[in-house]
Every structure is written in C-alpha cells, then in structure tokens.
Amino acid sequence: MNVPTRAHELIMVMGVQRSGTNVLFDSLATDRTVSAFPEDIDSAFYCNFRLRPLSELAALIERAPRRILLKPISETGTRSLVELAQEYRSYPLHFVWIYRDPVNVFDSMRRERWLAADEIDQPVHMRGWCKRNEYALQSQQQCPEQIAIVSYEDLCFDPALFRQLTRWLGLDCNSYFRKDSARGRKHVAVVAQRNIDAGTGDTLAALDAARTFRPGHGEFFC
C-alpha cells in the first residue's frame, strides 16, 4: 500500500540517556526554521516521556509552522528505530543517534543517582546499553540515508563535525558542545572500567566504525 508523503519534516535526536542528547538537541534547536519539542513527562507530544500515538500527533504536526525537532529517546526502551520509522513512514524523517563512551555514561547515571556506585558495571546495564545502541546500527543497515550516527566525544573535540551534521540536516545551528570532562574514565574504579569495556566493547567498536562523520575527514560517510 502506498503511503502519502506529508510535507512536515521530522528530526529525532536519539541515544541512550546521559550520552549527550540534551546538548545535541539544544544545539540543533538554535536553527530558526525548526519547532523544537524536547522529551517531557506530559505535553502535547509526550506522555510519560514517550511519544503519544501518531493518531493524536498528526494534527499537531500539521499545524507546526516549521520543521519539527523531537527528542523521544525513551522510545528505544521498548522498540527499535526501524519500528519507529515505520510508524512515521508518511513523513520525511531523519534520526540523529549520539553515543558516548559507556564508562562515562554509567558514571553520569551514578552521579544522577540513577545507578548505585556498586551497580555501575552490572551486566544488565551493559546489555541494555548495547541493545539500544544496536538499534542505530540496525537502522543504518536498512535505511542509511535516514540516520546519522555521531560520537559525543567527536563533537566535543572537532567543531567541524557538528557543521557537517548540520549541513546533512540542512540546518543552520550553533554548537553548545564543549570539552569532554570524561569524568568516568578519571574516577570509576579500574576493575569496573575493565568490566564495562569487556561488556560493551564490540558494540562500541561497531558504532565507531559506523560513524557518519569522523575527525580528520572533510566529507561525511554514506
């Protein structure tokens, strides 16, 4: 069945919590041609940090005067990007998936008191991190033109990469990325770091290989 293409372009910032999704969203939201709607517990677009059904959102999307920027990162707690793209298949849709060194992600979760200090290297958390990041790899394999995979550390290190991302999206934005503190690598116990590296290393290497933009390259990868 042919699905009519709607005019409103959607851009979704995605990634595991504490991976730089906030600074990425805020940076992209500086473009004056986008209407930005961050994740929320209860708003027109979100209920309990999840997107409301498209049947409820379609009218809101049509009324928006500009391209729509969303940050529905909790969606990948229960479904893949491929499933999300299928629901929104009638709209021009781009994902920007940001990932970060998992040691620093889990340490940030500890500092936010989402994890206890002795839980930072538990296998269940590493499996969850891998599963959600693998959704980005799956999406890239199926629809590479629809997703950009970016590294938080790269965007902090090389401002040119953010400019490449905004050109890919057709936006004119200001970057809020600053030097990465990498606190987890400085403060997490060495044994815990080794456990996290062992449990996430394959997925992290796959993400590094799949990056759409890389330091030292003037053009992006397809």
Description of the structure:
The chain is α/β, with parallel strands linked by helices and 222 residues long. Helix 5 runs parallel beside helix 9 (190-210). It has a five-stranded parallel β-sheet with strand order 2-5-1-6-7, with helices on both faces. The chain has a two-stranded antiparallel sheet with strand order 3-4. The mean pLDDT is 93. The protein is globular and about 50 Å long. It has helices at residues 21-28, 54-63, 81-87, 102-111, 123-142, 152-157, 159-169, 183-187, 190-210; strands at 10-14, 34-37, 46-47, 50-51, 67-70, 93-99, 147-151.
User: How many DSSP helices?
Assistant: 9
Uncertain residue segments = none
Structural category is alpha/beta
Radius of gyration: 17 Å
Could you give a short account of the major beta sheet? 5 strands, parallel
Q: In total, how many beta strands?
A: 7
Measured distance between first and last alpha carbons: 29 Å
Shape: globular
Mean pLDDT across every amino acid position: 93
| Residues in helices, as a percent range | 40-55%
Strand order of the largest sheet: 2-5-1-6-7
Helix-strand sequence: EHEEEHEHEHHEHHHH
Q: β content, as a range? A: 5-15%
Could you give the topology of this structure?
Elements: E1 10-14, H1 21-28, E2 34-37, E3 46-47, E4 50-51, H2 54-63, E5 67-70, H3 81-87, E6 93-99, H4 102-111, H5 123-142, E7 147-151, H6 152-157, H7 159-169, H8 183-187, H9 190-210
Parallel strand pairs: 1-5, 1-6, 2-5, 6-7
Antiparallel strand pairs: 3-4
Helix pairs in contact: 5-9
